Every structure is written in structure tokens, then in C-alpha cells.
Amino acid sequence: MLLRLDKQDLGYNRGPVLTDVSLAIHAGDRIALVGESGAGKSTLLAALQARLRERAALVPQHPGLVASLSVFHNIYMGRLQHHSTWYNLLNLVWPRRREIAAVRPIVDRLGLLDKLFEPAGSLSGGQQQRVGVCRAIHQGGELVLGDEPVSAVDNHQARIVLDALHEHFGTVVLAMHDVDLALRYASRIIGLKNGGVALDRPNDGLTVRDLDFLYRASDGVGD
Known about the structure:
This protein has a 6-stranded mixed beta sheet with strand order 4-5-6-3-7-8, with helices on both faces. Strands 1-2 form a two-stranded antiparallel sheet. The protein is an alpha/beta fold. The chain has 8 helices and 8 strands; from the N terminus they run βββαβααααβαβαββα. Residues 219-223 have low confidence and may be disordered. It starts with a strand and ends in a 12-residue tail after the last helix. Helix 6 links the parallel strand 5 and strand 6 (171-175). Helix 4 packs across helix 5 (125-139).
């Protein structure tokens, strides 16, 4: 087991967003977090990241790239903590061949090889999102946490990104806005609704219709 939450209230200074959350994450889990916008998917991911720290790579909803730096340097920053300050500064001015060699196959896999030394700020939103995914893959870790990691790319690129994440990480936890993709890639579905976990079950025969209740307004009778 990598992590367990037991009846936890999760949120921010202004108060909890999710209450009474109990769940466990095991090595090898392929989890999709689903639910309508505002259901608490980002809150849950933030809580998981805070507890897992350096054990997990993160693909945030907004990649937070340094616009003036190249794609290479933005990806390299995923492993800054593995090198000394002087080495990182040297690599900023004069990229080392071995660091380029480590990054090159990742950007090639995600279709960004021709952008490797272009400023990140010159890229489209979808390209910047893929750079954020590349950075997480380069960082590595026991698992990856992704907050809508394919929201800015088309369906073809989304499959490439999701394939790459599942190839590089044995354990994957992704907030997904596309239910079809969630059902295609996840072995376990966690659905959030009304400030809590409304569904947590293996993806054995689940359909989009089974998840529809997560996106309907409560009727007062209960879901």
C-alpha cells in the first residue's frame, strides 16, 4: 500500500471541500478520478501529493512552465533535486549531452522533438501541457498524479499522452474530464459527488451510463 486516507476532511483554509474521505492506493493501481467540475478532484489530488511528496511525479492542470526557457530546460527541471546547484546552473547555460540524451526520447514520444530548444512560451496550450507531462515522466517516481493531463489536446494526442504515462509509471492516479478515456485506461474508478466519494470500484464492465449519476443534480432522494 502506498497511501491510505481514513475518514479525512480535505480542503483549504476556507474549509473542507471533501469530507469523510476513506480510500487506499496500492502499487499498480490505475485510477481515474471522475465527477463534474468542482466536485473536488483537484482537492483530492493535492491531498495525495502532500502526503506522497517526492515519491510522486505531478502533472498539474496548469503546467507552470518558465516561458523564457526552452522546452528542454523546463523538462530538465523535473530532476533538479538530483543534481548540485552548480551542475544545474552549468546545464542552464550549456546543456549537457547526457541530459539532452535523457530528455530526447521522452519529447520524441510525445511529438515535441522539433520543439526541444524552442522557448516554452512560444508553444500552443496543448504543446505546453505535453511539456508538463514530459517533465513528470523525466522526474519519475513510484507513481504519477495528473490533474486533467489531456484537457488541452485532441483525442489522438490524448491517447499518446495517456499511453506514455501508463508505460512509464506502474501506479497512475489521474483526474479525468473525459469519461470514455477514463473507462478505457483506468482499472479503478473513483467518483466524487456532493463533497465526498460516491463511487470507488474496479472498472469491470463499467459503462458511461453507470457514471451518469455523478453528473446529475441531486434530486433529494439520494444517488
